[in-house]
Amino acid sequence: METGLGPSQVKENDILHSDSTSYQILNFNGEGCFGKIAKCRNLGTGNIEAVKILKFDLIECEVEMLEAIRTLDPDKTNIVRFMESFQFQNLSCLVFEMLDRSLLDLIKERKGNPMNLNEIRPGLGIMHADLKPDNVMLVNHRDQPFRIKLTDFGLALPENAVEPGMFIQICAYRAPEVSLGLLLSTAADMWSVGCIMAYMYPGRNLFPNNCEHNWMKVMLHLLGQPNHWQLGSGIYTSDYFTWENDSKDPLWRFKTPEEYEETTGIKSKMKCKFSWLVKDLEDALHRCTTDGDPTELKDREVFLSLLKRCLHVNSEGRITPSEAMTHSFITMVHLVEDRETSIYADAAFQLMTALKEPISTVALKESRRRLYSEEPVNSSAESSLTTRTDSFLTHFSQTPCRGLVKMNFIINHLLERTNG
């Protein structure tokens, strides 16, 4: 490799050298303005690991955050395992355990089929500040289905280092307090968790990602307007709202696309999307569901209650990670009384156990059989590890909203991470 190469010029089969070992680049799994993610072979151990290759001046903040969380158990906190950092020539490199695929990749593989709520239920004072499906990685979807870890701490920062007006998060997952220029906290991460929940359920982003003015309009339409105090304190409030005190009841009025362009110089991209066809958040979710038995419908309402608390427009009213961990959707307490009489409830508990612990193919098949009233499983025919979960997951993914357990599992892991 020639001296002076940047991340964009690194290619397959190049060798990266650290003080302790060397890494051979096998292929690339992702690329962005920051650099590249390379799948590499550790030539010292033979292990396959992920190397994030960045421009030199972009590494310091991320390494600081990774070192801060390195003392935590990466398996218990669902954070990607950080191996080492090093400089090679003018490249900055971060080495991580190799994970399977991102949540975004999984959704794309489904070709638009939404995740059911059973797939959503599962998943230090540091703000991640960039929670989105791209950064939620499946560890090993075949052997540990829906077991996730959080990656990419390039925008992470200590909560006490946050200042009003800091701009974080991509538009579709950005909390209202970020857009308005208010003081930020880990509540912004909880907003992103809610956006991820909403994305997994209907299989589309709840909020647009193409225009901040359009994002704000959709947010107001689905969730309502932030309170008077928030709007009055925001550094960027005047980009989106104008104060009208001509009447007896002064109020903040949302700006028209023309007013927004005049203020910011940015043309608003107001397009007719799914969000305009629904009345509110509840209506948006109900339009993405199919009928279910009474227990499933009850489970769906509990999911909606958690989603609403994650997407509270005022950060002080938003649910905290520790509160969310005790929410009924996560604990499934609302399903306990139905376990003896409802196939849905019984299968939900069995599936949560199946996803939390390594179990046999037979147990997974039995959980599916109970949910769908199939014929009993022939244990002698289910011995292959390679087919342990494939047909089960395929069957589940093609049946919209049939249960919520695996969704619980993923969100459970995200909450464990944001809870520190």
TrEMBL record:
| UniProt-listed InterPro entries | Kinase-like_dom_sf (IPR011009), Prot_kinase_dom (IPR000719), Ser/Thr_kinase_AS (IPR008271), Ser_Thr_dual-spec_kinase (IPR050494)
GO biological process terms, alphabetically, are:
intrinsic apoptotic signaling pathway in response to DNA damage by p53 class mediator; positive regulation of transcription by RNA polymerase II; smoothened signaling pathway
Gene Ontology CC entries for this record: cytoplasm; PML body
Q: Output the SMART domains linked to this UniProt entry.
A: S_TKc
In terms of superkingdom, the source organism counts as Eukaryota
Annotated ranges, domain Protein kinase: 23-330
Gene Ontology molecular function: ATP binding; protein serine/threonine kinase activity; protein tyrosine kinase activity; SMAD binding; transcription coactivator activity; transcription corepressor activity
UniProt cross-references to Gene3D superfamilies, sorted A to Z = Phosphorylase Kinase, domain 1, Transferase(Phosphotransferase) domain 1
Q: Pfam families per the record? A: Pkinase (PF00069)
Keywords of this entry: ATP-binding, Kinase, Nucleotide-binding, Serine/threonine-protein kinase, Transferase
Name the record gives this protein: Protein kinase domain-containing protein
Q: Which organism is it from?
A: Anabas testudineus (Climbing perch)
